[in-house]
Structures are given as C-alpha cells and as structure tokens.
Design brief:
elongated, Cation transporter, 79% helix, mainly alpha, single chain
C-alpha cells in the first residue's frame, strides 16, 4: 500500500535526520562558525518538522481513509507548530550572525562532512517523496518533498560556505562568506516557516516541478 510506503519513508527520514543535530552540535565545541551554528539550529527545527509530519501521517492513515475534518485540523495544527518553530529559529540565527563577535572559526570539518552527506541524502529523499506524491497525491508527502528539495539546496549553500572556511580560514573574505551562509539559511527558515503557516503553495521557494 502507498500509505505504508509513505509511512516507511517518513520514518526513514526521522532516523536519517536524527544524527545531524547531534553531530553538528558536537562540532560546535571545536568550531565557532556562525554558519555551523545556524546549520545546527536549522537541522533541529527540520527534525521537529519531520517527526510531527510522521506522527500526523501515522494518525491519519492508521485506520483507513482519514476523516476530512480531522485531517484538515491535524494538518493545520502541525503546519502552525512547525512554521512557528522555523520562523523563531531563523530569527535567532539572524541575531547570532549579525551580532556575533567571534572571529576565530576553529575546526569546521565535522560540520562540512555532515553538510556534504546532507546534499546526497536529502536529494534522494526529495526524489522519493516526489515519486510517492505523483503516484498517490498526499498533502503531507507533498510538503515533505518541498522541504527536502529546500534542504538539498541549503545543504549545498552550507557546503560551499564551510568549504571556503576550511580552505582559507584566515582570508579576509572568510567572515563575509560565513555571514552570507548564515543569512541564506536563516532566510530559508523564515520564508518556509511563513509558507508552512499560511499553507501557500504558489510562493514556495525552489518549488518542485510536477
């Protein structure tokens, strides 16, 4: 059944996303890059989003065809919680990026490794959710497809920023690249948080083609 495939994919997303905040958080003890800190907050917010989506999907499909009224209420509640968390995380990241006084970035290699793995894994999940939603349209799977498309692009931005910091940590441009990476991730979280709360599909960043 497509519902089982969707639930297994969501559960796999939870399992695969869980180590990210832990590893990136641990890496903060060795490096003080604002991009790395922004990435930690972003991955934590995304993990919460995925867990909520998995729980809602499981509740709605555990007893066959979901009740439309209950389905709409649960999806709206989940969207509100996830969107608010993403907006608050984005605002916190902007504050950290703009007002942080740290200039020594330390070791950013652990965060870079996670970002590179994230590009590969998130791209696979994006294509998987897209395929499942095409086979049997589902609002939760569609939103996860858009989320993972965005996650892939943001991980690519984080990879570029941390690669520059790892290769030339003392370069004059390092601070600006680090700041730029933080702002991109923060803007992604705030915009997609607003989109999630409003339930708008026409303004989604990096909207996937159907």
């Amino acid at each position: 059944m497509k519902e089982k495939s969707g639930e297994r994919t969501l559960l796999a997303s939870v399992v695969m996303s869980s180590p990210g905040p832990i590893v990136v958080g641990a890496a903060l003890f060795f490096g003080r890059s604002s991009t790395q800190l922004a990435d930690f907050i972003r991955r934590t917010a995304e993990l919460v989003s995925i867990v909520v989506s998995w729980a809602v999907f499981r509740i709605l499909h555990k007893s066959g065809e979901p009740d439309p009224v209950r389905k709409d209420k649960l999806e709206r509640t989940a969207n509100l919680c996830v969107g608010a968390a993403m907006c608050l995380s984005g605002a916190a990241m902007l504050f950290i990026a703009l007002f942080s006084s740290n200039t020594e970035k330390g070791n950013v290699i652990p965060g870079l490794v996670i970002a590179v793995l994230g590009v590969t894994t998130n791209s696979w999940f994006w294509l998987r959710y897209r395929k499942l939603n095409i086979e049997k349209p589902d609002a939760i799977l569609a939103v996860q497809g858009k989320l993972y498309c965005a996650k892939s692009v943001v991980d690519a931005c984080v990879t570029i920023s941390l690669t520059f910091l790892a290769a030339a940590p003392a370069a004059p441009m390092a601070r600006y690249v680090d700041l730029g990476g933080s702002i991109i991730v923060a803007a992604y979280l705030i915009m997609n948080g607003i989109i999630t709360i409003c339930g708008r599909d026409d303004i989604v960043i990096w909207k996937q083609n159907s």
